Queue: 4 jobs
Job 1
Amino acid sequence: MELETWQLVFLSALGIIAGFLNVMAGGGSLLTLPAMVLMGIPGPIANGTNRVAILAQNITAVTGFRKKGFSDFKLSLTLALCALPGAVAGAYVGTLVRGVLFNRILAGIMIVLLIQMAWKSRSKSKGDPVPEGAPPRMLLGHICIVGVGFYGGFIQAGVGFMLMAVLHNVMRLDLVRVNMHKVFVVGFYTAAALGVFVWTGNVLWIPGIALAIGNSIGGWIGSHVSVKKGEGFIRKILYVTLTAMALRLLWGP
């Protein structure tokens, strides 16, 4: 199917917002996926087309973090390799399944993450006996990433919140480094997931490229704002985004 010019321009503009949210917190795909569906693109094809933008966005964001001096290739790669098998399996499932209860399940997950992160923030101020990056937490974090990879391959929308919960709550990484690793991991497994969607014929390239242009701009802005503003600002964006997305999913159409 072909979209009109105004629809492609709209997708690019929406992609800027989505790319920024994805890098700073998550949930950008909860804007772009419904928009494509409302334009008449079937769900599985919208899901696959969205991966073109996600891949471009995270390549740009990784470059942005690296230029600001934030890069840890070894840890990013081990996390990405853990996410990869689940992402491929999840992407294949995503080409077949149309989830009826997806919105409310995701909303519940985000509310749990919001409460958990707020609780961890309070307990941390009282003194956390477990140091950042402790070996047991690193191992547990890598195990959790396998499951996150499956979800990311399957539907993508909201996966940023889950990655942030694992990297921040389990592995005890600060939120700037959380975002640095997050964009690498998502970009890495998205390349494989996109291959599955292309192989099954679930990608529209023109809308995907239009969306990718916007997501890349938003991702670049997000990587620079993340480093410049620091953890406190990221936490505020995360809480606001989680709350808004959860409410939208629970009570939206």
Job 2
Amino acid sequence: TARASFLAAMSHEIRTPMTAILGFADVIDEHGGVDAGTRTAAESIRRNGEHLLKIVNDILDLSRIEAGAMTIEEIAVAPLEIVQEVVASLRPRVRGNATELVVELLSPVPALIRSDPTRLRQILFNLVDNAIKFTERGSVRVALERGPGESLRVHVSDTGIGIPPEQIDRVFRPFAQAEPSTARRFGGTGLGLDISRRLARMLGGEITARSTPGRGSTFSLEVSTGPLAGVPAIASIGDSRGALSGAASRSGAAGSGVGAGAGTAARGAGSRPLRVLLAEDGADTQRLVRHHLERDGMRVETAVNGRAAVDLAISARRRGEPFDVILMDLELPEMDGVEATRALRERGYAGAIVALTAHADGPARERFHGIGVDAILPKPIERTRLLDAVRRSATSRSTG
């Protein structure tokens, strides 16, 4: 539809420059010779850029949901691992030693469920981020338990400011918070909980809340798990990796990416540096991605359109010097990333291809995976995720 096309275009046009804004703020921060004032300025750029990106993401997500353009995947998901990833990513936001951030199990939970990992992660990130934001001292606890029937519950509890009982329903309304002074003190658009509840319902569940002013709040997420027959349970945090490995081998869920290739050095066959072809027409994004890859010891060639990317990849293969990974942007001129990837696969190209895109929702993933893309890297492109995606894809292709 016209509305869906407009939202897709806006997503690309906003997220692409945010890659450069956030990325080069990190580059400044990484530089050893930067003075304290410059480092503080870079941190301010990053912090405000992240805030702007969250607002944009919330508005786009709400628009997609209301337009009926939001789709939900149903694939193998490791819920405890997603919780731990979310908590690890938010741990730097905890206020020093004043707030404790803990993950715990209230009962054994399934090692794998059938759900949408992107949307589940989005909901959990919002709930935990809110808990940290409104808790100046005490603790934030993320507790998992098996729910009734085929369901899983995650409780996010804090010892923060709390919410008056009569205001509980208000926090789930778009553009609303418990009271105006909360928005002035803590910031935020008031969209996160509304979107999270809508997404929870799309995942076959619900979000509920209970709170006591001055003592804290608990937001409880319940999602459908799908059939659990034969799925092993995780009884303690320390048992998660072994149970997950067994579940993946029995369910054929190795594609969930759990633990695959982490920590692999940026080396190709014969311990040579990885060779990467970067197909990206945006000069700033191209410069940023190239900086991160070369700083990690990789060798990079670039193409500014899909046709040039195909020609360079085929030529390198004929010379016996194939690229270990191609990073393929979706919105390329002359021949877009989907057409270029399809052309390469039709010509027998078997190397790893990672898609760079601002459209990382379900339809985009299906569109890319259907033509042979090994992984999808959403924009804005974050350095650690970029390097990890390249290493994983190169290792997977070279060993498989």
Job 3
Amino acid sequence: MELSLGIAKIKKYAVSESGDTLEFIERPGGGLSVVLVDGQRSGRGAKRISNKVAGKVVSLLSEGIRDGAAARAVSDYLYHERGGKVTATLNILSADLVTKTIVVTRNNPAPVYVAHGGEFKTLDDPSPAIGVRLHTRPVIYELPFEPGVTLLAYTDGVTHAGSRTGESLDVLAEFARLLAGDHSAQEIADAILGRAMALDHGRPVDDISVAVLKINLYEGDEIRRVSVSLPLGPLI
């Protein structure tokens, strides 16, 4: 099998930086974890928060700490660091080769969608943001590690897309349409970001980040490949 990851993100229109941070790391026992953090509001202050939170989660995961324990630890850290006055949302998507499962950890009102064998699950149990109070617990789901399983997670910029005109994106319907076309993880992420931006007429009302994790059947070589595209803008 092959594990593929698609990432697409863009900052809110007319702000200096995105308040979203997305990182991924190879797990100590094998597999991959994707960490998606949305700092409160947008801009540099939000970016500092999301960078710190994501960095601490990645550090804990690299030491073999379980996903749920890492989420609780960073929530308490953010609470103490900012006195309960700053929030962030957090998603961890992990393909764990030790347990041979996919683990989804949510501290985010936005759902995570799971597709497998033509069926879809919406992981949307009530899940609070981190940093507001001590001992905030994430909602955790464990799923089978099987070919064809595809996960979609995103920040609330997707939810807010079209809010200027009273429109909204049916994310699940768009996800299903893209999967029916046998698109790659990156193509799905790009397409959902593109639809959200279209509803905002190219001027996103919020930072938007989309992450797609997909397990495929694979008969190629054993080389691991990562491709990154990071527009830098004008250099002054």
Job 4
Amino acid sequence: MLAAAPPDLDESDAHRIIDRYWPGTRLRLRRIETLSGQVIQSKLTQKYLEPQRPTTETVITNTYLTAQEYDLFAQLPTRPLIKRRAAYPYHGWQFSIDVFEGALDGLVLAEVEAQNGQLWPGDLPSFARCEVTAEKAFTGGALVHIDAAQLRALLAAWLDEAV
């Protein structure tokens, strides 16, 4: 978790991610757009942790959708989560910085994918406040169930602990 987006974050190539979660399932509908609203990609995703695997290993299955298929799934009742995502190069690694919108405004998370089977090799990067990878409260499926007041309380608890 970050206290804020890094001041040198370049959002010129950022995109908006609109996730729609179906409560009680491992499924989400995702649309990725340019910041001006042009659709880049639509997909149906199943995402979950296997109990015997580390929390850093998530099982993800994507089915890429046409606009018509997306519109069909979008008719089902879901809980939305919206964020802007920008790439952030740091010490030879590529991080993704997610700046949340709407009820989750103020939440900023970073993630880094493994490179050649290797995980991030050290302590938290200098721009991060605390590690929340293994915390269920910071998964998209959990975040869609909280409002702005609950988010403020969650952030206050975590950021106070990180100081």
